[in-house]
Design a protein that fits this description.
310 residues, alpha/beta, Arc Repressor Mutant, subunit A, D-Maltodextrin-Binding Protein, domain 2, 3 domains, eight-stranded mixed β-sheet, two-stranded antiparallel sheet, 12 strands, LysR_HTH_N
Length: 310
């Protein structure tokens, strides 16, 4: 079937290597090479430039790759609609999530989805917000949930999902932790533990520091919320984190919430997808599960639905 050959071509193009593609497809390398040769013979042109280290697409190959992705998406959509006639949801979904959502919100949702739709192959990619948005724009991901603001790119459909409360935390032994209330200005000239550039949490903390005119004595960068929490608990500095990520640490006393005066700090969580991607039945069902989770009481009480605020 031509779909099989297109799938082989797309995999080689994305892996940039015949043997890696063969491994992913459970095919022999000669079998993969034969698929590509057949495609080139049929089209009468060279689609790939081969070298010992990697494969590079020709101009014709780039054109075919873009169209092949669309064809495979449409085929997957048709297959889902056919399966729906037999009440079967199947296929594959590539879901992306920024760290806070991927580690603290999605696990329960994924477990329920997998139980209800066992025929769906669901793959999860967790990264910082910038990486996940990039994955959606390149169609490597079908759907994603991210924290923080997302630029209104013409290729993106951005749907508000929830609001997440951000708080400032310190080690329980930190001098500021014993104060009943502190002003934002009291946070100046402190050591800060921050996330890496591209993180939604980093963007929020940068905005907080700038908006309040705070100077930083010294900063330490970690590429995960877990690393930030451990550093704060060890007394290395203070940090801005989602309340969702530190609930257990606050309960057991490893961390303390600093009672900063002023309104509660909120950031928006969003569901994003590429407007040009195929909306398969499996993706639609996953979106429905996301909506159900948002409306259910299963989310922590500090996760506030945007729709509930209207």
């Amino acid at each position: 079937m031509i779909v099989d050959t297109l799938r082989v071509f797309v995999t080689v193009a994305e892996q940039r290597h015949f043997s890696k593609a063969a491994e992913l497809l459970n095919l022999s390398q000669p079998g993969v090479s034969q698929h590509i040769r057949n495609m080139e013979n049929e089209l009468g042109t060279k689609l790939m430039l081969r070298s010992p280290k990697q494969v590079k697409l020709t101009e014709e190959g780039i054109i075919l790759y873009r169209k092949a992705k669309q064809i495979l998406g449409l085929y997957e959509e048709a297959k889902q609609q056919i399966h729906l006639l037999h009440e079967v949801v199947s296929g594959s979904i590539q879901v992306g999530a920024s760290f806070t959502i991927g580690e603290y919100i999605l696990p329960r949702l994924l477990a329920k989805f997998a139980t209800q739709y066992p025929e769906v192959d669901l793959q999860l990619t967790i990264g910082n917000t910038e990486e996940i948005v990039s994955g959606i724009r390149t169609n490597d991901l079908d759907l994603a949930l991210v924290e923080g603001s997302v630029d209104n790119h013409p290729d993106l459909i951005i749907t508000p999902y929830m609001q997440d409360e951000m708080i400032i935390v310190a080690a329980s032994s930190h001098p500021l932790a014993s104060l009943a209330t502190i002003a934002p200005a009291d946070l100046t000239d402190q050591n800060w533990i921050i996330r890496e550039p591209g993180s939604g949490t980093r963007a929020f903390s940068d905005h907080f520091l700038e908006a309040n005119g705070l100077t930083v004595k010294r900063s330490y960068v970690f590429n995960s919320s877990q690393g930030v929490k451990e550093a704060v608990a060890a007394g290395l500095g203070i940090a801005v984190l989602s309340r969702l990520t530190v609930r257990k640490e606050l309960q057991n006393g490893d961390l303390a919430e600093l009672a900063v005066s002023g309104p509660a700090m909120k950031r928006e969580l969003s569901v994003i997808r590429n407007k040009h991607s195929s909306l398969t039945l499996a993706v639609q069902m996953f979106q429905q599960k996301v909506q159900e989770q948002q409306q259910s009481a299963e989310l922590p009480c500090d996760m506030l639905s945007l729709h509930d605020q209207a």
